[in-house]
């Protein structure tokens, strides 16, 4: 079986890395297509998951508009997908690369499998691409791998047939457990700033990258972090996303602030190490919402809504939007003790076996298809 796996951003490598490993383990030939949306965030991930990112597209980072990126990625995928016989295309999530992969698979008549299917915010909020991309991928998919029952139900409500949807868990948990096994004993962090964390401070992690927050919302969130840094008992750690609009705002607001460390984007194992040491996280990241429950870590979601409400329902996450007062109050509440207020670890997004289930289902579907021919 020959499988075309398309990805282009850091979270996609993290979430498709375990799927590629499981596919290879099952004997499939995997053609990795790397579109290079996040070239500068891929450090260390190739080694961690044994994937080769040297095949794929070029020039996508130079394209400034998302429509331009979409066009370029689609064209470059076509030159690979149109010239070889693939049994499946696999894409993940809601990125421009996933949407381009879906269109290219559809137009070439190759069945598409969508990993992390069925997430919805419920609003198509132009010009933000995620919800649009998710729905586009759904329309083109033959198999939908929903991480939770809720995401399955979203798909069923939209008329996707039940026999094409499988609830498998989120492969983010597979990746996290893999990385956590690497940091279990005697881990030496790669980033020297992480290797030398002060022991007498309460660590508050922050990650902010979402386009919908750029401008006033981000200004308010950063204002809250500045206020918290002035408390003196906390150290705010913020790996700064390379998006130039985000970076500029973060550096302007927190560049000279005591008790704040602005870090380069961390390699995944360092980031997981930091999750295991933090008291709480202020984040607009999707992946971090899926990872925190494995550490029992309470998180504050700096968004107005989340397509991962399971994290809120399970008691790990609270939606705080960009409300400065709410962020300050909640972080202070979570750090007003002598030790981190961790919850019993229980991840609503999966058990680390999602990739195995996905691969089994793809192989079974192919057998049924061949038997019918
Ligand atoms: N992450 C990382 N280094 C960092 C920050 C995040 O490896 O400095 C990982 C994190 O563990 C998670 C993923 O990157 O798995 C989240 O990426 P991001 O927030 O950029 O995207 P999203 O998940 O919102 O799509």
UniProtKB/TrEMBL annotation:
Record keywords, A-Z: Isomerase
SUPFAM superfamilies associated with the record: UDP-Glycosyltransferase/glycogen phosphorylase (SSF53756)
UDP-N-acetylglucosamine 2-epimerase domain mapped to chain residues: 25-362
Enzyme Commission number, as recorded: 5.1.3.14
Isomerase listed as a keyword: yes
Catalytic activity field: UDP-N-acetyl-alpha-D-glucosamine = UDP-N-acetyl-alpha-D-mannosamine
InterPro entries: UDP_GlcNAc_Epimerase_2_dom (IPR003331), WecB-like (IPR029767)
GO molecular function, one term: UDP-N-acetylglucosamine 2-epimerase activity
Pfam families recorded: Epimerase_2 (PF02350)
Superkingdom of the organism of origin: Bacteria
Similarity-based family: Belongs to the UDP-N-acetylglucosamine 2-epimerase family.
PANTHER family xref list: UDP-N-ACETYLGLUCOSAMINE 2-EPIMERASE
Protein name: UDP-N-acetylglucosamine 2-epimerase (non-hydrolyzing)
Species per Swiss-Prot/TrEMBL record: Bradyrhizobium oligotrophicum S58
């Amino acid at each position: 079986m020959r499988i075309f796996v398309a990805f282009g951003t850091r979270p996609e490598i993290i979430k498709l890395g375990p799927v590629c490993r499981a596919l290879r383990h099952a004997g499939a030939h995997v053609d990795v297509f790397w579109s290079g949306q996040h070239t500068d965030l891929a450090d260390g991930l190739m080694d961690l998951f044994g994937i080769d990112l040297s095949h794929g597209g070029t020039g996508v980072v130079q394209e400034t508009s998302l429509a331009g990126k979409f066009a370029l990625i689609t064209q470059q995928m076509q030159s690979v997908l149109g010239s070889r016989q693939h049994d499946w295309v696999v894409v993940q999530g809601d990125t421009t690369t996933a949407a381009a992969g879906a269109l290219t698979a559809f137009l070439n008549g190759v069945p598409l499998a969508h990993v992390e299917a069925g997430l919805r915010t419920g609003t198509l909020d132009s010009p933000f691409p995620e919800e649009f991309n998710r729905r586009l991928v759904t329309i083109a998919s033959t198999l939908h791998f929903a991480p939770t029952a809720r995401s399955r139900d979203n798909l069923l409500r939209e008329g996707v047939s039940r026999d094409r949807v499988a609830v498998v868990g989120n492969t983010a948990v597979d990746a996290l457990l893999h990385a956590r096994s690497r940091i279990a004993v005697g881990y030496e962090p790669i980033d020297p700033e992480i290797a030398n964390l002060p022991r007498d401070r309460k660590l508050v992690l922050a990650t902010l990258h979402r386009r919908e927050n750029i401008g006033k919302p981000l200004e308010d969130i950063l204002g809250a972090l500045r206020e918290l840094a002035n408390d003196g008992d906390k150290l705010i750690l913020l790996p700064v996303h390379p998006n130039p609009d985000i970076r500029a705002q973060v550096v302007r607001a927190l560049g000279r602030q005591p008790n704040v460390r602005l870090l380069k984007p961390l390699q995944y194992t360092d980031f997981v190490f930091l999750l295991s040491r933090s008291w709480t996280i202020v984040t607009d990241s999707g992946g971090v919402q899926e990872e925190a429950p494995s550490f029992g870590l309470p998180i504050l979601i700096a968004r107005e809504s989340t397509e991962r409400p399971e994290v809120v329902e399970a008691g790990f996450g609270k939606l705080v939007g960009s409300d400065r007062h709410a962020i300050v109050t909640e972080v202070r509440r979570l750090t007003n003790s002598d030790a981190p207020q961790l919850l019993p670890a229980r991840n609503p997004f999966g058990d680390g076996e999602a990739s195995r289930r996905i691969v089994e289902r793809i192989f079974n579907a192919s057998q049924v298809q061949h038997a019918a021919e």
